[in-house]
Design brief:
Elements lengths: L21 H16 L3 H15 L4 H16 L1 H9 L11 H16 L4 H15 L2 H14 L4 H8 L7 H9 L3 H11 L3 H11 L5 E5 L6 H4 L5 E3 L6 E4 L9 H4 L3 E3 L2 H12 L8 E4 L6 H12 L3 E6 L2 H11 L6 E5 L12 E7 L14 H4 L4 H19 E11 L8 H9 L4 E4 L17 E2 L2 H4 L5 E7 L2
Helix pairs in contact: 1-2, 1-3, 1-5, 3-5, 4-5, 5-6, 5-7, 6-7, 9-10, 10-11, 14-15, 18-19
């Protein structure tokens, strides 16, 4: 009995050690790598999952949940930031990044998955205790309990401005894209609200795994014998794996006879390979070949015609990836480390040239969701001179009567039509070829002569292609 209060003291609550959840710790580690090192999730996550499996006790469903937590959190980061900002008493920039990562993971579980509310909050608080400490775990608990008071639709109604007041800002919050990206995509796509909303929604969907059967080395029939494999939509060499399909478990992929390649990339290579030529068809060039997907398909197609491919890549480590992708090609090829802006080959040496230039990557936001938050409008200014120089190099490298394919994995007009128009204005000895007939069966290709693919219309990355013939 206390002499001061006259009441018995309650015994101190025994300290309970936090429970370590390997799935959520792995997801947190992946987000920290993306944030701290500017890493990409598709490069960070696989080795983390592999290490977890090697330790044992980490099953397929654990890997699936960790993958969903990482990619779902990154895709919806803009929306979740707006929700978290409404639930804290300070500017979001003053919240420590590791704390914000734990909060974002928790918000995704609450608003973006079917995990029960109690489980989502308690698991996130336990994660905070492990990686942040008990003090900051209380802050996480308080914020997530506020978030749990409404569902995603309810929160969007609270934090997104009305569409009629500010359409671009409304879409930016609802579909979790930076406002400038919404504006740029809308300009490129044209049309009204329905089209841009379909595109933004497609950017937030998990892309299918698409394989390519490299001609002369494997066939689609071989790949279709895999479990849950179905034919591609547009490319005769494409096979899609159902959700959860592991490409590394496919024998042809493991042996390098097939590869993982988005169907849009396959279509770019096929269109260039099938473009009509005047004269011989013996020497092909891939001027920006890394990491090697298009080069491997082009080399295989060239081999069928008795042609040879030269694959050039400026970065030595990426040139190594190209060499690995082309290893075993049935026809002649060569991989060189070379700068496409200062090429070592003679002008007019090639019949076909592909120049898939470095770009913002806004066409692959399904695969690299963190890129939307990392890119800035000023990045396009740094790409512009390089893109124009590389297209000029391509036009110098092709012979008269030969064809150049200018490609980007971006639909941004500043990286596509503006580049082509500016360069061709100074090159009267060129003409654009209508690329649409070279993609038979592919709908909604626009007015031409160039081609823009879209995730929501074609199920591909937003690849752009212009085919140019050198006429004199």
């Amino acid at each position: 009995m206390s002499e001061q209060s006259g009441r018995p003291r309650r015994p101190a609550k025994p300290y309970r050690r936090p429970q370590k959840d390997p799935v959520r710790i792995l997801a947190f580690d992946a987000l920290r790598a993306v944030d701290e090192r500017d890493a990409y999730a598709n490069l960070v996550l696989p080795p983390l999952l592999r290490k977890a499996r090697e330790k044992g006790g980490f099953e397929a469903r654990d890997a699936a949940l960790a993958t969903e937590l990482v990619y779902g959190t990154l895709r919806r980061q803009g929306t979740y930031d707006a929700v978290i900002a409404a639930c804290v008493d300070r500017p979001l920039r003053e919240v420590d990044p590791p704390v914000l990562d734990v909060l974002s993971l928790g918000v995704h579980q609450l608003l973006g998955t079917r995990i029960p509310t109690h489980a989502a909050v308690s698991a996130s608080v336990e994660l905070a205790r492990v990686v942040l400490g008990d003090g900051r775990a209380k802050f996480v608990n308080a914020v997530l309990r506020k978030v749990a008071q409404d569902d995603l639709d309810g929160w969007i109604a609270k934090v997104a401005p009305p569409y009629d007041d500010d359409p671009e800002d409304h879409l930016a919050v609802v579909h979790s894209h930076p406002r400038w990206v919404v504006s740029a995509l809308w300009d490129s796509l044209g049309g009204g609200r329905a089209g841009i909303e379909d595109l933004l929604e497609a950017d937030n969907e998990r892309p299918e795994v698409t394989l390519v059967a490299r001609p002369g080395r494997s066939t689609t029939e071989e790949l279709l014998r895999e479990d849950a494999a179905v034919p591609g939509r547009w490319s005769p060499y494409a096979v899609r794996l159902a959700e959860g399909g592991e490409p590394g478990a496919v024998r042809a992929v493991d042996e390098g006879r097939a590869g993982v390649q988005d169907e849009g990339s396959q279509l770019v290579a096929l269109a260039l390979a099938n473009a009509p030529l005047d004269g011989p068809d013996a020497t092909w060039l891939d001027g920006c070949a890394g990491p090697g997907g298009k080069a491997a398909l082009l080399a295989a197609l060239a081999a069928e015609r008795g042609a040879a491919l030269l694959a050039a890549e400026k970065q030595p480590h990426r040139a190594g990836l190209v060499a690995r992708a082309l290893k075993g090609n049935p026809g002649p090829y060569q991989v060189v480390t070379a700068d496409g802006t200062r090429p070592p080959w003679r002008p007019g040496s090639f019949d076909r040239v592909l120049m898939d230039v470095p770009c913002s990557g806004l066409g692959a936001l399904r695969r690299r969701p963190e890129a939307r938050w990392r890119r800035r409008p000023e990045d396009l200014e740094s790409f512009a001179p390089l893109q124009r120089t590389l297209l000029r190099t391509a036009l110098d490298s092709v012979r008269v009567g030969g064809v150049v394919g200018y490609a980007t994995c971006s639909p941004h007009l500043a990286e596509t039509r503006a580049v082509v128009a500016d360069v061709l204005k100074q090159r009267p000895e060129t003409e654009l070829i209508d690329a649409r007939p070279l993609l038979p069966g592919v709908p909604a290709l626009g007015e031409g002569p160039d081609v823009q693919l879209w995730p929501h219309l074609h199920g591909t990355d937003a690849m752009y292609l212009a085919l140019i013939r050198r006429t004199g």
